[in-house]
Amino acid sequence: MNLLGIHHVSALTANAKKNYEFYTNILGMRLVKKTVNQDEPSMYHLFYADEYGSPGTDLTFFEIPRAGHTYPGNQSISTTSLRIKQNDSLTYWKKRFEELHVTHGTIKEYLGRKTLPFQDHEGQRLMLISDEGVEGTAAGTPPTNSPIPPEHAIVGLGPIHLTVAALEPTKEVLTKMMGFNEIYADPQQTLFETSEGGNGAQVVVEERADLKRERPGRGSVHHVAFRVKDEDELSTWKKRIEDAGFPNSGLVDRYYFKSLYFREPNHILFELATDGPGFAADEEEEHLGETLALPPFLEADRSQIEAGLVPLHTKKET
């Protein structure tokens, strides 16, 4: 029973419209689901991914209009990396960021791979990471209706960077309970991977006891989710997590996948999520993300929910 890699990362934004413009028009990702936070339907929940909304490619955002500034620190998911196919694409992206005035760093090597750190308009900490020369978990499919050429497109989530006050408690959960293997360590950080490995199945943990705890706001990450094959395996994971002494949410039906949530010892929220049924459960694949999608248990409240949301036009012109 192995986790199959990263499933999705969910972050916070204060403005759904500006968020949509950045991730589709600048990064060229596809909006595959425009829905609401199922626990708080007054806010949007936007899902950006590859052409098909494949597990392992989803970067999602909860809109909290009054979200304050993020004060970075430990006990956090401090960087989300996004996969591209080849090293040469980083030069393309650096030029694009310069032309569009996107805050970015320099192309550099990170854990043996070429990368380019950057931030969105709200300070979300992101990094492009190249798949060149890296084997393992398969990438997604470049979006077709995108301003980014397919050879340079973002094709999935890469290693997720955690910053914690103490390495060992998180390491114990990742290795002894969740089945990750430690594959690299230096004085600053430790790299773990699961299943087939590679960029789509890795977590980096940095120990920074010198930092204060992060104060999250717009531009911060809420949680990271890991891929589980199906609901039967998710039930088995539930028992494993309970046997290890961790309180958890129990199985939660998110309609597009089934989930379970728990906090590891450094208070970072982990989710386990099934690969299916997927985002085409209630929309045709070619029209994903064009209208407000609601799971069946919220459909009766559609009028009230829509009245409380600022309209967000996401239908692509043909």
Automatic annotation (TrEMBL):
One of its GO terms (molecular function) is dioxygenase activity. The keyword Oxidoreductase applies. Residues 5-131, 156-275 form the VOC domain. Keywords: Dioxygenase, Oxidoreductase. The keyword Cell division does not apply. Pfam families: Glyoxalase (PF00903). This is Ring-cleaving dioxygenase. It comes from Halobacillus salinarum.
